[in-house]
């Protein structure tokens, strides 16, 4: 069975990272199609608002937030449950000046964290 088929059959989990004007509508749209969706954002106040049924971004509206099945979280370990992750920005289309400021905070492979920026050491040292 392909990943697509597993997602449709609710045997796999999709995560959306970044719940702003791009990520939030994407997360809600996938959930409306019946997929298991984790919505992740590092802004815990935004996550609290979503969990309480409010849309602080005003992208989809409070009613859609209240009625969605998206599992909102600011806990990165919840991303380990995801079989497929959507990032809210296309890094290939990003402003070249902004790319230099992009940081990889963590990398997961098959649910296992293989890189953690907080624990990384500078190879020059």
Explain this structure.
By secondary structure, the chain is α/β, with parallel strands linked by helices. The protein is built from 5 helices and 6 strands; from the N terminus they run αβαβααββαββ. The chain has helices spanning 3-8, 23-32, 44-51, 62-67, 96-99; strands at 13-17, 36-40, 71-73, 84-87, 106-109, 112-116. Strand 1, helix 2 and strand 2 (36-40) form a beta-alpha-beta unit. It is globular, with a radius of gyration of 16 Å.
Largest sheet: 4 strands, parallel
Helix content: 25-40%
Please trace the helix and strand order, writing H or E for each element.
HEHEHHEEHEE
Query: Could you tell me how far the N terminus lies from the C terminus, measured between alpha carbons in angstroms?
Result: 46 Å
Portion of residues in beta strands equals 15-25%
> Would you tell me the structural class of the helices and strands?
alpha/beta
Rg, please? 16 Å
Based on Cα principal axes, name the global outline.
globular
Tally of helical segments: 5
How do the strands line up in the largest sheet? 3-2-1-4
| Spans of at least 5 consecutive residues with low confidence | none
Mean pLDDT: 83
Number of strands: 6
Q: What keyword list fits this structure?
A:
globular; 125 residues; 6 strands; two-stranded antiparallel sheet; alpha/beta; 21% strand; four-stranded parallel beta sheet
In short:
With 125 residues, the chain is an alpha/beta fold. The chain contains 5 helices and 6 strands.
